[in-house]
Amino acid sequence: MTNESGKLFPKQIQLGSEKLKSFFINHLNRIYSAKAHLVSKLPLLNDEVYFKDLQFAIQETVEDVEKQMARMDVIYELLDAVKADGSINGLSGLIDDAFDAIAEQADEAELRDMSIIFYLQNIESMEMASFQVLQMAAVKLKNNQIKQLLQENYDEAKADRTLLLFIAAKYIIK
Fold it and tell me: What domain of life (predicted)?
């Protein structure tokens, strides 16, 4: 299709419900697998943290991720879908980079904490974006309960990101 000036613009995407459901479950698997990886790795950071408020934020993030995974379990049930391992190369690479950066700052606690905050911020941003896209897909799946569960996950990820920003500001000003 073209507009009045002759430029091409995309057609509206029309996915059949089975294709959309498959896309949704595939990406839900990716997010779920990434969250499981995150829950296994985040507690390891607490031993590296110098600033106590950051330790609190990491603990709260782990608890929130576990709640998000529980909501995702409900979504799987609502879709009558089975969880499968999803590719997490991007997120696991980001987490591995975080641990490398932390190791590079082994002798400087403040910089190590800033590296932790930097990477956790990036991870939370990726989660928020993922939940937003799945929420849009949930609208097409015509399931308000799934949409609501994803909204709750998005809100928690956003709150964790805001907490990390607050801690970063407090830490830098300290």
Answer: Bacteria
